[in-house]
Amino acid sequence: MEKVAKCPVCKQGDLIEGASSYMCNHFKSVDDKCSFTIYKSYFGKDITKEIVIQLATDKETDFFNDLVNRDNKPFSAKLVIQEGLIKPVFENKELQTSCPKCGKRVHVSSKAFICEGYIQNKACDLYIGRNVAGVMLSENDAEVLLNGSSTDFRTDFISQQNKEFGAKIILDEDFKTKFVFEVAKCPKCKTGSILGNAKAFSCSNFKDQQIKCDFVIWRQISGKEISANDVIALCENGSTGVIKSFKKKGSGDTFSGKLSLSQDYKVSVV
Predict the structure, then answer these.
(1) Mean pLDDT of 59-86
(2) What is the C-alpha R_g of the chain?
(3) What mean pLDDT is reported for the chain?
């Protein structure tokens, strides 16, 4: 049996490689023995001899980004020796907002925002994956969600059919991510929802054979990208605040103005 490293716990025996683990071979009597063991897999990570040597020497590994929990969800952590056991220690990075379910800290990894209770013993199931339909959630997005608000509306989500779509994200009553597609209520037909895509914000009743609402706000107006907040103001108040950096046709000179709805619900810069 191959000796891989000196035992970091008893410091007398050697770690011997077995079929499923590396075990300390120190044994003199029932009262003078060491049972320290490093298994060959933790959280889905294969433990190589190099990792065993690092643990034995430094009592900790580098951070791994490919660990998985019991639900096969990824997380980042390093493995350390604590009280004679191998345990995960998470990168010292956490959100300012506590878990809204249990009040514990929410850790940040490259793959997700994870409640400490979820990691320790699954007493809490808060787990927010960072990749949502092809968009990586930022730490600010997570703070917003945990405080009960929605993220900004964006149009670069990718559907299962590989098509872009627009939405905001909220946490539902079970604290799972959920898309909200409505930007505002349609000011023209009063019953439709304003939905967004890469080209325009338009009424959901456009395809309704009875209503056929043609209300639309283009994403680009006079060279300026129109935001979801501008659309909300326009639909609810009939005009926006002052918007900078519109561009004049021909000259390309910039100017400031407001978006306004006419009586027939056409959008213009005033």
Answers:
(1) 88
(2) 28
(3) 91
Phi first, then psi, for residue 251 (nearest 5°) are: -80, -30
This prediction has a pTM of 0.59
- Letter for the amino acid at 129? G
User: Cα–Cα–Cα angle for 197, 157, 140, nearest 5°?
Assistant: 110
Residue pair 101/126 in contact by the 8 Å Cβ criterion: yes
How far apart are the C-alpha atoms of 163 and 145, rounded to whole Å?
25
In the 8-state DSSP scheme, what is residue 94?
Answer: B
Amino acid, res. 96: Q
Dump the DSSP string for 179-207.
Answer: EE---EE-TTTSSSEEEE-SSEEEEGGGG
- The CA distance from 232 to 148, in Å, is 19
**Three-state SS for 246?**
strand
Contacts of residue 231, Cβ cutoff 8 Å, sequence gap at least 6: 183, 184, 194, 196, 201, 217
Considering 103-117, 119-133, 234-248, the range whose residues carry the highest mean pLDDT is: 234-248
Summarised one tens digit per residue, pLDDT across range 161-183 is: 998 888 999 999 999 999 999 99
The number of beta carbons lying within 10 Å of the beta carbon of residue 82 is: 12
Other Cβ atoms less than 10 A from the Cβ of 146: the count is 22
Two tokens at 233?
């103001």
Q: Which residue type occupies 166?
A: G
CB 123 within 8 A of CB 117: yes
Whether the Cβ atoms of residue 200 and residue 207 lie closer than 8 Å to each other: no
| Mean pLDDT value across residues 33-57 | 95
Predicted confidence band of residue 92 (pLDDT cuts 50, 70, 90): low
No. of H helices and E strands in the chain? 4, 29
